[in-house]
Structures are given as structure tokens and as C-alpha cells.
Amino acid sequence: MTQRDRVLSRHLTSDGVVVWSRCSCGRLRMDLVPAAGGARLGAGPCPHRDGGQASSVSS
Ligand SMILES: [Zn+2]
After folding, report:
1. What pLDDT is stored for residue 55 in this prediction?
2. Sheet of 5-12, strands arranged across
3. How far is the centre of ligand 1, averaged over its atoms, from the C-alpha of 47 (Å)?
4. Residue 30 burial (CB < 10 Å; 0-12/13-18/19+)?
5. Which residues surround ligand 1, an ion (CB under 5 A)?
6. Structural domain includes residue 59
7. Domains in the chain: how many in total?
8. Per-residue pLDDT of the chain (59 residues; tens, 9 = 90+)
9. Domain range for residue 20?
10. 49 located within any domain
11. Entry pTM
């Protein structure tokens, strides 16, 4: 088990599943997992959001 991210809650929306989690650095993070599939979209200032397992969208 990893303690890197802790999922706080999940909410099903028309766009997909919004997942709120807390990073190991303590920041709150929101991810949208599209209902249609594909890569999840991260939001928030945390630089650790991808955990190195997926390429991030640089913006
Ligand atoms: Zn972090």
C-alpha cells in the first residue's frame, strides 16, 4: 500500500468521477476521471499529482 495519496471522496458527475485526494505533501487535489475513458485530469497546484505513472499535461 502506498501512503502517497489518500482518497478523501469521490463524486459521480455528468463528466465523470471527480476524485478528491490529499497528497503526501498535504495539499488537497482534485482529479477528474472522464466517464468516456482516457487519462484523468488533475487540477491544483500540487506538483506530485501524477505520481510519475502518467505523463502530465504541462500548462
Ligand atoms: Zn504533493
Report:
1. 46
2. 5-12, 16-23, 28-34, 41-43
3. 6
4. middle
5. 23, 25, 46, 48
6. no
7. 1
8. 555 678 999 999 998 999 998 888 888 888 899 999 888 888 776 776 555 554 444 44
9. 5-43
10. no
11. 0.62
